[in-house]
UniProtKB/TrEMBL annotation:
Pfam families: Polyketide_cyc2 (PF10604). Residues 145-169 are annotated as: Disordered. It comes from Methylobrevis albus. This is SRPBCC family protein.
Length: 169
């Protein structure tokens, strides 16, 4: 299962990347994140790890995330495993007229029978998961704008848009 959200950010890819990889600041600007505890020391690199505590749909969960792919300032991929499922969260940033096109994509791949059951449950929550992703992206967009000033070339940016991509795996 893959779900994504996209938005135009009126800042450079570097500002967007710095914002979305400032893990300790997540609780300050991502409304769904309650706490972040770094496991590895800076600088950001492959295998950097941290715990993220997030409240979603009235349930609080603490997960360990690890950076498994990194191409600054354009791409970062996190991975975690839970309920027999491998979850990845990708952040893709591309230069675009007026700033940066940003996409957040979560992919869930079951690895066990328990994971297939969990994935079936999550499939029924696609729209709610997409809304949570879009909220994270909107929160990150606002923080990037705060950090990056009035925008790139004085142009206004488009708002966030959630999409349901991919297919059930």
């Amino acid at each position: 299962m893959e779900i994504s959200a996209e938005a135009m950010l009126p800042v450079s890819p570097e500002t967007a990347f710095d914002t979305f990889t400032d893990f300790p600041a997540y609780p300050r600007f991502l409304s769904g994140v309650d706490a972040v505890e770094m496991i590895t020391d800076p600088p950001l690199r492959l295998k950097s790890r941290f715990f993220e505590t997030r409240t979603m749909f009235g349930h609080t969960e603490r997960v360990k995330l690890m950076v498994v792919a990194l191409d600054a300032p354009y791409h970062i991929l996190f991975e975690t495993r839970a309920v027999g499922t491998r979850f990845t969260l990708g952040i893709d940033l591309a230069p675009a007229e007026g700033g940066t096109r940003a996409a957040l994509t979560i992919t869930a791949t079951p690895e066990t029978f328990k994971g297939r059951i969990a994935l079936a449950f999550m499939a029924g929550m696609r729209s709610r998961i997409a809304e949570a992703l879009a909220t994270d992206l909107a929160d990150g967009r606002a923080e990037a704008i705060r950090r990056g000033g009035p925008g790139v070339g004085g142009r206004a940016a488009d708002g966030s848009r959630a999409t349901h991509g991919g297919s059930m795996r």
